[in-house]
Structures are given as structure tokens and as C-alpha cells.
Amino acid sequence: MLDIRRRQFITLLGGAAATWPLAARAQQPLMPVIGFLSGRSPGESESVEAAFRQGLKESGYAEGQNVHIAFRWAEGRYDRLPALVASLVDIGEDPVKLGLVASLNRPGGSATGVSMFLSEMEAKRLALLHELVPTATMIGVIVTPSSPSIDTQLREINSAARALGRQIQIVNATNERELDAAFVSLAQSKVGALLIASNAYFTSRRDQIVALAAQRAIPAIYDQREFPMAGGLVSYGTNLSDSYRLMGVYTGKVLKGEKPTDLPVQQSTKFELVINLKTAKALGLDIPATVLARADEVIE
After folding, report:
1. What does the DSSP assignment read for the chain?
2. Which of 153, 168, 259, 278 is the most buried if burial means most Cβ atoms within 10 Å?
3. Is the pTM of this model over 0.85?
């Protein structure tokens, strides 16, 4: 953790992202500046920003009154983010596996925050996809090889596929052209369903991905609610608003002088299942009543 008394600066890692140097140049020298850096895109992050501000408010901080926030967005471009972060308040992946903390209860060092299980949910998403499309013997998976969590994702996906007795075809995509090519390849392989791995770049390209899935009539599952809101079939993943609110609360604790090493890593406990019935109908897919009953939101 940077010495707040000297630097008046906190670096925040937002959801599977990192940070790049920021100048803490507040108009009021004594007002702390929070550097909020995320792999997401600014146009898709209004709810994330609002949730973070709400968490800060719960800790007694209001932007522009007693704290400044410098938002920076990588827009899915991991090459914009340096390898090391001086201090983390949000941790998108499993922080123990990433080597950022010694344990969740006793982080040690300078890192603590909120673990959102972004990659650890891949197995559950694959199982849910199998539940929705049980006849699919071959399932496609699109990943970004440059993702910091790619090893965890592939391990989770392959293990889940073996447990379900299903074959998977994994294809890489890091730009628009490769996304188009990925869907061509998967269609040629006649996959019966598709898992889009959790990745900030894919979220930024959700309109293209949803359109390609509809064009090829492939039932697909995603990690964030933005996808079914854009016309995708279904999403299952961490409730980001709740996670970023917790992140704001933790940031407030650090601003008040608590040491990161004394703050256990929080774990997300709220997850949401969103189903787009209009898309299901277009695909000729009947959503099982047991799945509908578990849905947090149904788009009709």
C-alpha cells in the first residue's frame, strides 16, 4: 500500500485489470486521490462507477467533497496495464492463486480487496449451458490468450467438460477479425452451444459477439448481464454492482488508515442469472422450468 499520508494516492485494480502510472494532482493538496483502473470500457461502466461511489459514501467519502477519483479504462487491452501494482483494493481473480496474497484471511504484504471469482465461475457456466442445451455434444469456447487468468479458465473449462462427458473446441480471439473467424470455425465444427469466457475485451465487444451468435443460431452463455441485455441468451456471474460497492467500502477503510495486511480479502457472495426469453424463442430453445425458477432476471 502506498503511504497515504505522503502520497495521498490509492491505486485500485478493477475486475481482472491492472494499473498504469497516474499523477495524483488534486487541486486540494490534502484531499486524497483514488486511482481507479479497470479493464472495462467507460461507456459500459456507469453502474460500476455508481456502485463504487456508493461504497465510498457508506464509508463517509463523497467524490469532489473529501476525495477525488481518477478513472482510467483499458477497454479490454491488457497491454495497457503494467505487470505490477503497488496496491490493490479490488482483485478480480483468486488472489491466492495469483500470488497476490498469502491467504484470504491474512493477506500479508500490501494487497487486499474483493475477489469476484471471475474465472472460477467458468465451470458453473459450462454446467448451466449443458443444462440448457443437453443435446449439445460439442461445445465451443472462445477465450483471449492474453488474459491474466487464461490458465485458470482453461483448467476450469477442461475439468468441467470431462465431468459432463462433453467435447469442447477452444478458439482464441483478441480482436474483431479473430472474433469473426472464431464463429466461422465453430460453425464449421457444428458446435451445439457456446461459452464465452470471462474477459473485459469480450464485454466491450458484446454487440458483435451477440450478433454473431444470433447469425449462426448458436445458444451461448456469458459472464455478465450486459450480454442478455444486448440480446444474448443467458448470463451467469458475479453481481458486479455489489462487488464494486464492497470495493468502495474497503477503499474508505484504507483511507481512514487501516492497513491492507489487516483487512481480510472479501469474497463476492452475490451472483446473478439473467435469461433472455426472446432470444431463447428465436433459437427455438425451451428454457427448463427449473432454470427459470432460479433466474434473478428474465427478459421477455
Report:
1. ---HHHH-EEEEEESS----------SSTTS-EEEEEESS-GGG-HHHHHHHHHHHHHTT--BTTTBEEEEEE-TT-GGGS-S--S-BS-BSS-TTTTTS-S-SS---TTB--EE--TTTTHHHHHHHHHHH-TT-SEEEEEE-TT-TTHHHHHHHHHHHHHHHT-EEEEEE-SSHHHHHHHHHHHHHTT-SEEEE---HHHHHTHHHHHHHHHHTT--EEESSTHHHHTT-SEEEEE-HHHHHHHHHHHHHHHHTT--GGGSPPEE---EEEEEEHHHHHHTT-PPPHHHHHH-SEEE-
2. 153
3. no
